[in-house]
Amino acid sequence: MRPQSLHIALIGNPNSGKSSLFNALTGLRQKVGNFPGVTVDKRSGESKISDNLSANIIDLPGTYSLYPRRSDEWVAYNVLMNPGAREKPELFVLIVDASNLKRNLLFASQIIDLKKPVVIALTMMDIASKKGISIDIPELERLLGIPVIPVNPRKDKGINELKKAIDQTARHLYRPPSWNFADVSQLANNAVAEVRKLFPQISDYAAIHYLIHHESFELDSQAQDAIEGIEKKHSFNHTKVQADEITQRYARIRHIMQQSVVESDPKEKQLISDRLDRVFLHRFWGYAILLGVLALLFQSIFWLATYPMDAIEWVFGEFSNWLAGILPQNWFGDLIVNGLVAGLGGIVVFIPQIMILFGLITILEDTGYMARISFLTDKLMRKVGLNGKSVMPMISSFACAVPAIMSTRNIENKKERLLTILVSPLMSCSARLPVYIILISLVIPPTYYLGFISLQGLVMTGLYLLGIVMALVVAYVMKWFINIKEKSFFILELPVYRSPRWKNMLTTMIEKAKIFTLQAGKVILVISLILWALSTYGPSGKMNAVEARYEQLMTEQPQQAEILEEEKKSALLENSYVGILGKAIEPAIKPLGYDWKIGIALITSFAAREVFVGTMATIYSVGGEADENDATLREKMHSATWPDGSKIYTLATGVSLMIFYVFAMQCMSTLAIVKRETRSWKWPLVQLAYMTVLAYLLSLLAYNLLK
């Protein structure tokens, strides 16, 4: 018998353990997209509930009640209420935080009153126990009228019991209670009755939301007019009904708490989180610890990734030599070795750093420290026109600016949201990491201070801090030119400190490596092959002239054949299509210390920043010297020279190029998403202009100071 498929939505308050439960239910069977019509992230995944039931699970954005304010709350609301929503879950798993039961039960009571199949997953039982909170689960289940299952997704406890309850609810063994938490007859009985005549399939409580938010629902004009008429006929007052409803709900919730929950005096026991916050949120030590954490983060990228990087370089080097030995010595063999393998090898070598970076960021999020970073930086953010909510998108930009810019929809203030969008790309994303690593290894010596502090790690930290500082400066300047006047509030719930989930960290590392390899790899591979063609072929007249000249020289000077062959390769590369393009832009970038090969990499990396490394790998492979066949890309770049014999990659050039990549807008996807979020080409063009000017001027300054 083929298993039945069910659509399930996970709903709950923010920081209630929803994401942990989603990961526990779906494991690696996840995919990320966007909800239709909006740029809020949508995570979905497959889960086997029982032998005869499988489920597609959607992780809805966290929300505190069925009265949405933020765009992500509207997404959850539309899935729950809008009859025209594309996502139509048949069952809801409601995550309730046992350590904040009273607050969570407000949203839970609203969902139960919708009369849809619901199962409650009661999380944070261990935290509740530490707070001295004891919950009578059977009594709570009786009072709510739906199944309540204690779970600890971080330790995979209660998951099987939850799946059993889902299966039983799907088979209608559990039914929603017939009574309501909010007495609709006292709120708007006559208006509700008339709305239910129009929509007999909805509950009494859902009818109230049709009266309040019907303009946001996808209803035909006849239905909209009918609801408007009902509102006017019964003088329906949105604000009064909402206030009365919340009052009624809390009265019922107090009764439930008295019957099913025993709480100790909160002064008797202080959570370890409170004691830790005295240190981590200290007005001095808090910032010192934050800087230390960031420094340790980037030091670890070098400490932990050295050996896997060396191993990958060795494997690709051996593989290239083996391929060169068995493939024919013609264009096809050259395409595979110098186009395909060289471009791919230049990116795969950086997977260890990508995995380490995301693994460490996941630990910061899991432990609860990431929320403390927002709290610590709110005061500073406000001085430059932002607020603490801007920090999370900016920190997310260390991974990728595209989802970070999408996440700014959580910022209610329009001016602060726009400023956050405009400065987020100044954070050094993971795509810049391969560029930084190869340039730092080229021009910064592997020196250690006190035996463990790496100079290369310090430079890496400095590059990230440089982006942060400039983002604050730009935000401060731009706030005077963006004329949007709107009051701002910053309310943040600090989650308790928890031990990191190593399985979740490993899952994230694998997923990010897969995304980096498959998505970035596709772009890099295509560009590497195009570059190989452009650097192998050129105008027939020029290429034939080079061939003829060196054939004559080899005939006249056979003893110089090896040297002439190397010069011939270089001359052919310079006269190829890519060489012609590079030479054309070289006058504009030479003041920064760049040659035409670097210029080509700057152009191609506009598709994706990490393409810089693949481009250099392809160009140096095609134009490589005979005795450099076994050399790594770093070794080839290290030996690159100007026509006068001086080194290209000096300290001045390397620092100039790193600074250029800190500030330059070199990602088409980022510009596209800024246009989508701001609904105008004005702001992405402003962003492109100011970042390009910053990159050029500061790179020019750095080069002239260091040369």
Descriptive notes:
- This protein has 707 residues and is of the alpha/beta class.
- It folds into 3 domains: 4-170, Rossmann fold; 184-263, no CATH class; 270-537 and 576-707, no CATH class.
- The protein contains 30 helices and 11 strands.
- The longest helix is centred in the middle third of the chain and has 42 residues, at 285-326.
- It is elongated.
- The termini are far apart.
Draw up the topology in text:
Elements: E1 4-12, H1 18-26, E2 30-34, E3 41-50, E4 53-59, H2 71-81, E5 91-97, H3 101-113, E6 118-123, H4 125-130, E7 133-135, H5 137-144, E8 148-150, H6 159-170, H7 184-198, H8 204-213, H9 221-233, H10 238-260, E9 261-263, H11 272-280, H12 285-326, H13 331-348, H14 351-367, H15 369-383, H16 391-396, H17 401-406, H18 414-423, H19 433-443, E10 448-449, E11 453-454, H20 455-478, H21 502-536, H22 540-556, H23 561-574, H24 577-589, H25 596-604, H26 611-622, H27 633-638, H28 651-663, H29 668-678, H30 682-706
Parallel strand pairs: 1-4, 1-5, 5-6, 6-8
Antiparallel strand pairs: 2-3, 3-4, 7-9, 10-11
Helix pairs in contact: 3-10, 5-10, 7-8, 7-9, 12-13, 12-14, 12-20, 13-21, 13-26, 14-21, 18-20, 19-20, 19-28, 20-28, 21-26, 22-23, 24-25, 25-26, 28-30, 29-30
Give a concise summary.
The strands form three sheets. Strands 2-3-4-1-5-6-8 form a seven-stranded mixed beta sheet, with helices on both faces. It has 30 helices and eleven strands. By secondary structure, it is an alpha/beta fold.
Secondary structure class reads alpha/beta
Percent of residues in beta strands: 5-15%
Poorly predicted residue ranges: 32-39, 623-630
Mean pLDDT: 79
Query: Whole-Å distance between the termini?
Result: 74 Å
Main beta sheet: strand number and arrangement?
7 strands, mixed
Let me know the number of strands: 11
Number of helices: 30
Radius of gyration: 30 Å
Total domain modules: 3
Based on CA inertia axes, which overall geometry fits? elongated
